[in-house]
Specification:
By secondary structure, this protein is an alpha+beta fold. It is 24% helix and 27% strand. The protein has 9 helices and 15 strands. The strands form 6 sheets. It has a 4-stranded mixed beta sheet with strand order 8-9-15-12. A 3-stranded mixed beta sheet has the order 1-7-6. Strands 2-5 form a two-stranded antiparallel ribbon. Helix 2 runs antiparallel to helix 3. The longest helix has 15 residues.
């Protein structure tokens, strides 16, 4: 973890910074480096770093652990060396607080990520092979441009709630036979947010977000398979609490092709040949996703026999599958007089006393059956 920057340095605040100073620094940097606003190559990494720093420093327990142990505190659980840190909190904390009124540090609310969105894209078989850009329309909640998500007019910072003093909850102490009993409830004045929107932004009406329609270009990579899902980070809905935006998940559906089917990284195709081509061999033109290619059909090919065309299958990065060609011998259902005569002569030259294997009939026996000879 030695390569990580100090979280206070990331946010540009002193180690004695208050919660309000942390939040102000975070919001300013998040707006500056948000990937939707800042298109530089380093913006996304800065944005992740800023969110990570704020998530730790805005939490009392984790900040205390970081102040003491630095980045090594990450290996001690969320409570930074607390023996109960692996479970997220001391299980006796609430018990002590309830009966004896002991003061324990609670986890502060941290900005939550925005909601994820889903979309479906239909592409052709060949587009799935070579990749394609698709534009999709969606409607989503986006950060208000006028208040930048603060919900206040002109982007002002909302003041701390005077009822709960910014904690988001109101505590009450009752006397019982067992001693003091403390309860905590969300603050009704600020609805648990810790701030009050005293001068709402007129554009978003104090919501911090507005509904907009967007056209998003999705780059579908070559070799994608049916029902695979692409994740577009940060293209979901904006957060309502100043956190990062959600993701957009795009499910890809592929239209069937009249000739090709896919099997893993290979492409399958069936080719029909006549009995003469199968017996004598021939030079064929076979369709591939790259266009027609020449293929030598060997003499004596049997119906159902398969041949492999190397590197004519699904492109997957630097690797590529094969095309599997299945040959089917097509026996004619009708013959003219000349064709029938030639087949009869062929049958005579082949002889009628052929040694058969059990339950096996020769190709020419099947031909004679088809011709009614």
């Amino acid at each position: 973890m030695a390569d990580k920057r100090d979280y206070y340095e990331v946010l540009g605040v002193s180690r004695s910074a208050s919660d309000d100073e942390l939040k102000k620094a975070y919001r300013g940097l998040a707006r500056k480096y948000h990937p939707d606003i800042n298109k530089s190559a380093e913006a996304e990494e800065h944005f992740k770093e800023i969110n990570e720093a704020y998530e730790v420093l805005s939490d009392g327990d984790r900040r205390a652990a970081f102040d003491r142990y630095g980045h090594a505190a990450n290996g001690m659980g969320s409570s930074g060396g607390d023996p109960f840190g692996g479970f997220g909190a001391n299980p006796f904390g609430d018990l002590f607080e309830s009966f004896f009124g002991a003061s324990t540090t609670r986890r502060r609310n941290t900005p939550q990520r925005g909601a994820d969105l889903q979309a479906v894209v239909d592409i052709s078989f060949l587009e799935s092979m070579f990749g394609v850009d698709r534009e999709i329309e969606l409607t989503r909640q986006e950060t208000c441009d006028d208040c930048h998500g603060t919900r206040m007019k002109d982007g002002a910072e909302p003041p701390r709630c005077t009822v709960c003093n910014g904690t988001g909850e109101v505590r009450r102490v009752q006397q019982t036979i067992l001693g003091q009993f403390m309860t905590a409830q969300p603050c009704s004045a600020c609805k648990g947010e810790g701030v009050q929107i005293t001068d709402p932004c007129p554009t978003c009406r104090g919501r911090g977000r507005v509904t907009r329609g967007r056209n998003i270009t999705v780059t579908i990579p070559a070799g994608i398979d049916e029902n695979q899902t692409l994740r577009l980070t940060g293209q979901g809905e904006a957060s309502s609490s100043g956190g990062p935006a959600g993701n957009l998940y795009v499910k890809v559906r592929i239209e069937p092709h009249p000739l090709f089917t896919r099997q893993g990284k290979n492409i399958l195709i069936s080719v029909g040949v006549n009995v003469a081509q199968a017996a004598l061999g021939d030079q064929l033109n076979v369709e591939t996703i790259d266009g027609d290619t020449s293929f030598t059909l060997p003499a004596g090919t049997q119906s159902g026999q398969q041949f492999r065309l190397r590197s004519k299958g699904v492109p997957l990065g630097h690797d590529r599958g094969d095309e599997i060609v299945t040959v089917h011998v097509v026996v004619p259902r009708e013959l003219n007089d000349e064709q029938r005569s030639l087949f009869e002569q062929l049958a005579e030259t082949m002889g009628s006393e052929i040694q058969q294997q059990p339950n096996h009939r020769s190709f020419f026996d099947k031909v004679k059956d088809a011709l009614g000879v």
